[in-house]
Amino acid sequence: TQVTEKLEEVVMIWIKQIKQVLVESEQIRREADDIGPSAELEHWKSRMSSFNSLLDEIKSSRVKKILSILQAARSKTLKQWKELDGNITIAANEAKDNVRYLYTLDKFFRPLAKASPVTMMEQVPSLMNTVRMIYCTSRYYNTSECMTSLLLKITNQMINTCKTYLCEG
């Protein structure tokens, strides 16, 4: 029982740390007003990396051994652990899915940043079609919050590109 209690303490520390990671990942991001759409892709890539690392750690043999000991001891901490494990898996899947969809837009981001206003406008129909496809098919990114953020960043990039064009001209 002493071993079980020590292991439960360790798992409770892990649970507290994982909850903190999940809470921080759900907080509203503070971003510059003029940030472009590439930042959206970078955000989700970073989040995917974080959650994948966390999943790798959770699936390590060390953690599995501790969990199996607690399971044999019928520990009540496992209920909380399983719920958090599921939440982390969902967060990792969301990040992976969002990165996959945002990569389809990546081919528009560079031309959007470097083009003249005329060339940029030629890209807009294809870009909007791709955004529409993401909205219609994505499991996670098709919320109004995500779409609003993405469209705001696309608009910011278009404005910045036009400003640069006007200043150079």
Termini, distance in Å?
77 Å
Q: In oligomeric terms, what are we looking at?
A: single chain
Mean of residue pLDDT values: 91
Helix content: over 70%
What value does the Rg take, in angstroms? 22 Å
Number of strands: 0
Number of domains: 1
Extract low-pLDDT stretches: none
Largest sheet: none
The H/E string reads HHHHHH
Structural class: mainly alpha
Shape field: elongated
Task: Please report the number of helical segments.
Answer: 6
Strand content is under 5%
Question: Could you describe the 3D structure shown?
Answer:
With 169 residues, the protein is an all-alpha fold. It has one domain. The chain has helices at residues 2-26, 38-58, 61-72, 77-114, 117-137, 144-168. Pfam families: DHC_N1. This is DYH5 protein.
The gist of it:
This protein has 169 residues and is mainly alpha-helical. The protein has helices at residues 2-26, 38-58, 61-72, 77-114, 117-137, 144-168.
Strand and helix map with partners:
Blueprint: H1 2-26, H2 38-58, H3 61-72, H4 77-114, H5 117-137, H6 144-168
Protein name: DYH5 protein
Domain Dynein heavy chain tail: 5-167
Pfam family, one: DHC_N1
